[in-house]
User: Fold this.
Amino acid sequence: MTARRAAQKRPSPGMLFFLATAFFTLILWLVRPGAVRRAVPFFLTILGEIWPVLVFMFVLMFVLNLFISPQAVKRWLGQASRQRGWFIAVIGGIVSSGPIYLWYPLLAELRKQGMRTALAAAFLYNRAVKPALLPLLIYYFGLGLTIILTVYTAIFSIVQGLIVERLIEGHAGE
Assistant:
């Protein structure tokens, strides 16, 4: 069997995670069925709250795949993007909203299309800056600290992105 055929038969990481979750849920149901009976309605409640955001993210991913070519992603967020890519990652991370885990599929898709790992890391790092909370930060700590903290977050997101990219590239050959 060729390596390609073997890779095609292997389940995806997402499927492995699903199967592991289902397996552990089954084990828990056998050991403590009451816990599972309480967890299922809780899960459904959370799913009911986040489904609009999930649908929005999948539609956004579909539209991105439909209208943005991998060449455009590489040009704007790839290895040759330079300052423009960093600017998009930093500002995009700051203005993005919603739960962070909903951004993971979109960033993964952009990475498949050529986005630099460093820019994805910088985007995630800048999610720490919450524009809606900046007035509260200014009120309690002052404008000076707010500006310094925001600027340092942006600067260190770039440093962090470069470190993450270097670490990922270092382990890619293993």
